Amino acid sequence: MGSMSPETTGLPKSHRALVCHSTDKPLALETLPTPEPVAGTAIVHIIAANIIGYMRDIYNGKRKYPFPTPMIPGTSAIGRIAAVGPDATSLKEGQLVYVDCFIRGRDDQTAVFLGGVHEGYSPQSQRMMRGEWRDSTFCEYAKMPLETLEVLDESKLLGEVSNGGLGYKVEDLAYLGAMLVPYGGLNSIGLKSGETIVIGPATGGFGGAAVLVALAMGARVIAMGRNKKALEELAKGRERVETVAITGDMAKDLEALKAFGTIDAFLDISPPEASKSTHIKSAILALRHSGRVSLMGGTQEDVALPHSKIMHFDIALKGKYMYDRDDIKTMIKMIQVGVLPIGEKAGFQVTGKFGLEDWDAAFTSAAENATVGKFAVFTP
Predict the structure, then answer these.
(1) pLDDT-derived band of residue 1, with 50, 70 and 90 as boundaries?
(2) What mean pLDDT, rounded, does the chain reach?
(3) Phi-psi sector, 68: left (phi>0), alpha (psi -120 to 50), beta
(4) Phi, psi at residue 310, to the nearest 5°?
(5) Residue 272: what pLDDT?
(6) DSSP string covering 175-213, please?
(7) Is the previous residue joined to 272 through a cis bond, with omega within 30 degrees of 0?
(8) Which of 308, 318, 315 is nearest to 291 (CA)?
(9) Residues 60, 114 contacting (CB under 8 angstroms)
(10) pLDDT tens-digit profile of 35-88?
(11) Strand partners, 265
(12) Are the CB atoms for 354 and 377 separated by under 8 Å?
């Protein structure tokens, strides 16, 4: 069955979108034909799209991420279903949904890419992003695979507290995308309530989110980072958070970690520029026998690991790229039942709500506030 026309679906004939034509040129705000729903897809009216702190460096080429052009950039978002394809069975127009930008091949779950950000590492993932799923969410209406949309309990999440709701604002929900990434790593190594985990570096956007998620999972956290003031702010008012500064002296940092007793696990979520950091070695050396390590950092270079410790102490190393689909469902449940607070009650701050035309200011705001609980969103 073919696509349905805008007249049939009630969609507008055109919509506004940011377009990346080249990393040598600034993004352009353009008016484009509204995408049409076909089998296996839904059209989502984007309400709030999360802006990653290093977004500018992606689209100006500094990070050298591979992606096709022209392309509508984007990330995960919150939206409302505007139209569905003919084979949709449970998704309906009007539902509030989480839009996941981590897209998987339907006939090959190992073919994965980040919509609007990175075309992945296999010919199969590259073919998907260069073809049907080239465009993402920095627009008014996005065409998405049905399976990337998770329905949110709008009355519970956005309802008044006096009526049994949680009282969140819709833009608060956009932070879900930042928390999902570290949750994928934490869950992949089976982090349990009562365990102690080292998270490092913990003062950036994803590292800070990892601390909050690990606490919600019932763990004690030892947060590592170079910025002592940021570490103090992270621990302030939060029980079960200890801090250790990364000094560059591996032995000194190791002793500081050991002072907190038995350590069960370590999550590394380093940015690319931290490939020579000493914290990975010190954290692994601090682990108990049979400790677990989740490697989620963005470094592209080889990292020196303490082979003897890993071998003699049965240390398990687990690489994790993003998260599994079931992780999305679990995290949504954690928020909806209240074990993972977000919004103002958790000290979160939306540093700005920007229209698509203000993309330059939006990227600046996101970069200047790339720390725990602070984020900017596009509200097309």
Answers:
(1) very low
(2) 95
(3) beta
(4) -60, -45
(5) 85
(6) GHHHHHHHHHHHHHTT--TT-EEEEES-SSHHHHHHHHH
(7) no
(8) 315
(9) no
(10) 999 999 999 999 999 999 999 999 999 999 999 999 999 999 999 999 999 999
(11) 197, 292
(12) yes
